[in-house]
User: Fold these one by one.
Assistant:
Number 1:
Amino acid sequence: MVMNDLEVLAQLEGLSYPVSKQDLIAEAEAREGSQHFIESLQVVDQERFPDHESVAAALQTGPRL
């Protein structure tokens, strides 16, 4: 599930970094983020994100198979 940078930015506006994958998922759920966004986060391999750009990059590439 690939998301573009603008979709990611809209879902993460105002979030403090760095953030763990689990905290990012919890925050997305608390903000009632889109199901597509939450499912996309759940399958990425990266466990920690230093900034918004790293989240966007992980969602662009998807999980490693």
Number 2:
Amino acid sequence: MQTGALTDTLVLGASMQDFFEHGLNDAVFGASLYANIFLAGATLLLLMWLGRNVKDPRSQLIIVSVMGISAVSIASYSGLASGLTLSILEMPEGHGMEGATTVLETSDGAVEEDGTMVLWGRYLTWTFSTPFILLALGLIAGSNITKIFTAIIFDIGIMVTGLAAALTTSSHLMRWWWYALSCVYFLVVVYILLVEWPEDAKAAGTYEIFNTLKWLTIVTWFGYAIFWALGNEGLAIFETAVVTSWGYSILDIVSKYALSIIIVVWVRDNVDIVSGGAEYGATSDAIPADD
């Protein structure tokens, strides 16, 4: 019986409850999800406490931006842990996981399904959380709204095409086409981070902290791209979803929670610098000094 392209590739035998129970029964896999829910929640509370006395509007905007990162992560990782945003996909001909099977540990015993597990909910996390990272970095650099908007638009393009790469099962080549397109969008963001915003940060007097945040972001974001290529969605050098999940989780911890804490601590201690820009976002009454 013909059931259509979607159900030919998306295994429907594994229910949401099966995925949820697998996360509870497979301690290593489940820890990669539940650890992030805890850390995102703890980070959000810490950021609220650190920024509680900041009154400057622009400084508050930066703090709220990075708080949004943790808020999105809590919701997204909850979706993964509940089984809502997990699927088992049968990979196309030529893929390293072609013909693979996945065993889910459920309360009724092991359930084996054809295909490999794809945690596509992560792409939702990145689509909604990484723009907050770039907004905060752009504001710290003292950049203008056009550059910030450009970075965010191409950033969303990275994540949407990455999701397409993860979910495409019609063609192995098309998976890599989506991946290559995602990398092109990524290079646009890298250009802004490496070329445009450093000059803005020098003018704003925030170059030192921006340089730290810039490299932390670039290195970890390259890590995501490399890990996709090596993991079960790409070349399948790392075949298990557990390894892929932990790789992304560790990158999330560094690129989101650690980055957020660094940003809020710096903003809290440097409100006069953040609010005293001569152009975009200036919120203080200070008069910029002549060169």
